[in-house]
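JOB MANIFEST
job_type = single_chain_structure
chain_count = 1
residues = 216
[input]
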Amino acid sequence: MHTIEKTFREKILAENFSCVGAKTSINRSKYQFCLLDRIATEEATSKLYQALKNFTNSRITIDNRFASFIACFASSTNIQPEEFEYLLWLQLKMLYEIDELPWDKSVSNDVNNRFFSFSVAGEAYFVIGLCPDHPRKCRDFYYPMLVFNSHHQFNYLKQINVFNKIQKTVRARELHYNGSINPNLIHFDECSEALQYSGLKANLQWQCPFNFSGKE
């Protein structure tokens, strides 16, 4: 196990870390960790896409309900949160451009649509960004990272009527851990989840720097 992965595990498994879902995934090793160089480069994009495609095809063997894909860009240092937000979306756009499979039909490809979710390798994913000096403690890490969680797991949690309970638990822990609840969560299920990917404070007038309606 790489030192960076160990450090990340320590962060998530710390007693007061707010996201209980992440703690469960890391504690049970229900994830795949991918170490890359610089974010939003052609080389990193090619490697990331192949790794995500393999993960998507084998996710059920890791865990038939819950599994996460974690990409760490170890050569991207000294990136501030505002720059990271742009690079996050640039990286997703670059993945989209080389994706061989169609967008997951269960979600929208319009970033302004409340049913939007990023699709890669034919599967919808909720993306969580972490970076150095992030204002939210749970998103603060030494290196830029992108965590991909399949939308199937959120749908399953809703089907078994535990999603709202977990959501309330996470928000209560976040209030204790960070001193406030992430304001982007206030509009959860009311607007596009794209507002939440970078973890930075956004408003309803926020505009994504890229779109996924057609390939260049």
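[summary]
The mean pLDDT is 89.
The longest strand covers residues 123-130.
exit_status = 0
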